[in-house]
């Protein structure tokens, strides 16, 4: 599955940390691998523990002075919003993580990374592509594909609408700008996340 966590926020301001609610919601769904974007950088260990999963993460942008950002956002994520800091995370329940790799895609206007874990079936790649311009998003996606040409599963918040064509991979499912790609066929569904995030999660079954 893939889910953009909206920096741990709700579209309707909550006024307090939603870590426990996000963790319990994520843990309550059935999945083997979860690709997460816009994660508060101190959240991945807590999300993984709640879901009984292993995890790997990479910090992305707006993390200078992270201790102060954390102190503010832990009390109320709606004060700093996306300036609370960002990370991408991969959580894995049913496979051993054999390796973890990261690839910086761009430094401007915001730092963007692709990162991947190697599982027994192959590399699983997670990214959050640049916003504002389709050509920026497509550039990031293409660079990620170049960095991980043998991806078994590729997805995340690609910031591309529709069903963008990716060479060598089949579109497995998606919603708006969130997509999952791989090989063969799959069924997919958009999950109900209640009040959490401005992105619904997308889950595919291979």
UniProtKB/TrEMBL annotation:
<keyword id="KW-0540">Nuclease</keyword>
<dbReference type="GO" id="GO:0004519">
    <property type="term" value="F:endonuclease activity"/>
</dbReference>
<protein>
    <submittedName>
        <fullName>Endonuclease/exonuclease/phosphatase family protein</fullName>
    </submittedName>
</protein>
<keyword id="KW-0255">Endonuclease</keyword>
<dbReference type="InterPro" id="IPR036691">
    <property type="entry name" value="Endo/exonu/phosph_ase_sf"/>
</dbReference>
<feature type="domain" description="Endonuclease/exonuclease/phosphatase">
    <location>
        <begin position="1"/>
        <end position="199"/>
    </location>
</feature>
<dbReference type="InterPro" id="IPR005135">
    <property type="entry name" value="Endo/exonuclease/phosphatase"/>
</dbReference>
<keyword id="KW-0378">Hydrolase</keyword>
<dbReference type="Pfam" id="PF03372">
    <property type="entry name" value="Exo_endo_phos"/>
</dbReference>
């Amino acid at each position: 599955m893939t889910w953009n966590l909206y920096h741990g926020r709700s579209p309707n301001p909550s006024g307090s940390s939603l870590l426990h609610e996000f963790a319990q919601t994520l843990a309550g769904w059935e999945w083997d691998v979860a690709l997460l974007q816009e994660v508060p950088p101190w959240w991945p260990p807590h999300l993984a523990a709640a879901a009984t999963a292993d995890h790997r993460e990479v910090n992305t942008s707006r993390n200078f002075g992270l201790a102060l950002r954390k102190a503010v956002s832990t009390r109320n994520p709606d004060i700093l919003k996306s300036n609370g800091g960002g990370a991408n995370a991969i959580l894995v329940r049913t496979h051993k993580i054999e390796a973890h790799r990261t690839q910086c895609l761009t430094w401007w206007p915001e730092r963007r990374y692709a990162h991947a874990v190697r599982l027994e079936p192959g590399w699983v790649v997670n990214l959050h592509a640049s916003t504002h311009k389709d050509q920026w998003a497509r550039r990031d996606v293409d660079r990620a594909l170049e960095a991980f040409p043998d991806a078994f599963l590729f997805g995340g918040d690609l910031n591309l609408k529709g069903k963008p064509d990716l060479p060598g991979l089949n579109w497995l499912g998606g919603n708006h700008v969130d997509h999952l790609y791989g090989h063969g066929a799959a069924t997919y569904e958009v999950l109900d996340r209640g009040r959490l995030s401005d992105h619904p999660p997308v889950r595919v079954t291979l």
